[in-house]
Each structure stands twice: as structure tokens, then as C-alpha cells.
Design brief:
Number of strands: 2
Order of helices and strands: HEEHHHHHHHHHH
Shape: elongated
Largest sheet: 2 strands, antiparallel
Strand order of the largest sheet: 1-2
Radius of gyration: 41 Å
Number of helices: 11
């Protein structure tokens, strides 16, 4: 089941947790003939019964067959959990696109976790935890809480919040401010009638500074958080990742802008050096072998001349 589908069905599921329905459908009872007996408020009555006995018969069935009602304290805990879960589910759906769930829903998420902890911590004083969390195989309250917790972890929202999870971290606040500044610059320079690709150069020129500041801060967040994680794989929260992806697509794909690279000259120099390195190697090898061959030939000539001179001396 997908995230959106689950969130759409979640309000109905949560409301069903508090619904009180009769186990019998009103007065549509099929009475069988015979001498069967049933307990009705401590009295024994035999079949068949008159129609005037139907009200007492129905109430007796309900008292015998209905599950025991929750204690008032447990009912209040359940209703509070349902209300906070509905608020969180609505916030997650509304913040799905663009993704802003970490910055918009951290307060609602904290409420749900707190209400679930309140249910878990009532085990010693009453049976609320057993009734609400362990009374059936489905365990709907625990299942809903697990869904919210898994979604929060998958979105890495904790990496956008402060240590107490009571607000956004300073780096996240700075990033969002730079992001809003960049988007405002894009909109300001994309006035009506100035939407042709040939006019995007104005956006690239005027918004270059804000975009570079945003990219630099994004890189700094990744670097700092990676060091704090002691080399383990680290992911920024989904809000920051989605915002940066949107900005990069607009800058590089839609506006076709490019940020001048300050390391262009060193990169070109190193590339040329690597490219010409094989040529230099082969050229030096060739020259060295040619020089060695010349020395060898010269040495042979000197040796031959010396031998010829010795022969002439002996002949004389």
C-alpha cells in the first residue's frame, strides 16, 4: 500500500476506532420457535415470546454479547490519540508537494508520539495499554503509530530539527531563507512577457549570486553532517533535498544557466598534462634510444681506428 493511499484511508480508520456500533441490527431479530431459554436480566423466559417482549430481548442480547466498554480514562486516551493522528495525517498530505512535511508537521508528529507514550505508560495503573494495544491481532493503534514513525524516519526529518526536536535547526533555517531568496529572484526576473528562452540570460545574471550562496550552504551542510556521523552514510531531510533538486532543475535545465568554475585553469592544466604525458614519455624514450645508438656506433669507430693504428705500428 502506497503512502498516499494509506494516508487517504487513515482518517476513516481512526474514526472507526471510536465508533460504537450495536452488535445486533435493531429489531430485525429472527425468533425461533421451541422451548429454548435465554438469560434476560437475571430472569428465565421460554420461547415463543410475544412482540411486546422484543425490547427486553434485544437489550439482553446486547448486555450478553457486547464487548466490555473501555474505561473513561482509556476512552479519553484513545480519542486524544485519534485527534492528534488526524491532524498529523492531514499535515502530511497537504505537505506532500512540494515536500515540506518536516518543517510543517514536526509539532503534530510530536503530539502523536506523546499520546502513544501516554497509552503505553498506563499499564501499571489500569488496563488501557492492554485494551488498546494488545487486545487483537491487528493492533490498529500500534500499527498507525508505527506508520507515522517509519515515515518520519524515512524522510530523515530529525536531521532538519534541533536536538530536542522542538524546532528547525539553525542550518535548516539558513538554507530555507536562501532557498526562498533564490525563488523570489527567479520569479522577479520572470515577469509576464519575459518567458522566452532567449531572455533567461537576465535570470542567470541577476540570480547568480543567490544561487551560488544556496549551493555553497547546501554543500556545507552535507560536509558538516557527514563529519558528525563519523563517516556513516548520511542523508539530509527530504525538505532540503527536494528544495535543492527543484532549484537545480530550474537553474540548469529550465534557465540553462551555468555557474563559472573558479578551478577551471588548474583543471585544464592537469588535463593537458595527463593528455601529453604519454607523448612526452615516448618522445623521451625515442631520443634516449637514438642517443645510445649514436654513442655505440661512435665507440665502435674509435675502437676500429685504434686497432688499425696498432697494426700499422707493428708493420713499421
Amino acid at each position: 500500500m502506497g503512502l498516499v493511499t494509506f494516508l487517504l484511508l487513515l482518517p476513516g480508520v481512526l474514526l472507526g476506532l471510536c465508533a460504537e456500533e450495536s452488535l445486533l441490527p435493531g429489531r430485525h431479530l429472527l425468533l425461533q420457535s421451541g422451548l429454548e431459554e435465554i438469560v434476560l436480566g437475571g430472569r428465565h423466559r421460554a420461547w415463543p415470546l410475544d412482540l411486546e417482549d422484543l425490547p427486553s430481548l434485544e437489550s439482553g442480547f446486547l448486555r450478553v454479547l457486547q464487548e466490555p466498554q473501555l474505561d473513561p480514562e482509556c476512552k479519553e486516551l484513545l480519542n486524544t490519540f485519534v485527534d492528534s493522528s488526524l491532524r498529523l495525517a492531514g499535515c502530511l498530505i497537504q505537505s506532500a508537494r512540494p515536500v515540506t512535511l518536516c518543517q510543517n508537521c514536526y509539532h503534530q508528529f510530536g503530539e502523536v508520539m506523546q499520546q502513544f507514550n501516554n497509552i503505553e505508560n498506563t499499564t501499571k495503573s489500569n488496563r488501557c495499554a492492554q485494551s488498546l494495544l494488545m487486545s487483537d491481532r491487528l493492533q490498529m493503534v500500534a500499527l498507525v503509530n508505527k506508520f507515522f514513525n517509519d515515515t518520519w524516519i524515512k524522510a530523515n526529518c530529525a536531521n532538519c530539527l534541533n536536538q530536542k526536536n522542538e524546532g528547525l535547526s539553525a542550518s535548516t533555517v539558513t538554507f530555507l531563507a536562501l532557498y526562498n531568496e533564490s525563488m523570489a529572484c527567479f520569479k522577479q526576473n520572470l515577469q509576464e512577457g519575459n518567458l522566452l528562452p532567449s531572455n533567461y540570460s537576465e535570470v542567470c545574471e541577476k540570480c547568480n549570486g543567490t544561487y551560488k550562496n544556496l549551493s555553497f550552504h547546501y554543500s556545507e551542510i552535507q560536509k558538516n553532517e557527514q563529519q558528525e556521523e563519523s563517516g556513516e552514510q548520511f542523508h539530509l531531510c527530504i525538505d532540503i533535498e527536494d528544495a535543492m533538486n527543484i532549484t537545480q532543475r530550474l537553474w540548469s535545465t529550465t534557465f540553462n544557466c551555468s555557474v563559472p568554475c573558479t578551478d577551471t585553469v588548474p583543471v585544464i592544466a592537469v588535463s593537458l598534462f595527463i593528455f601529453f604525458l604519454p607523448l612526452v614519455f615516448y618522445l623521451s624514450t625515442f631520443l634516449h634510444s637514438k642517443q645510445k645508438k649514436r654513442i655505440l656506433i661512435l665507440g665502435k669507430r674509435i675502437h676500429s681506428n685504434a686497432s688499425f693504428a696498432n697494426i700499422q705500428d707493428k708493420s713499421n
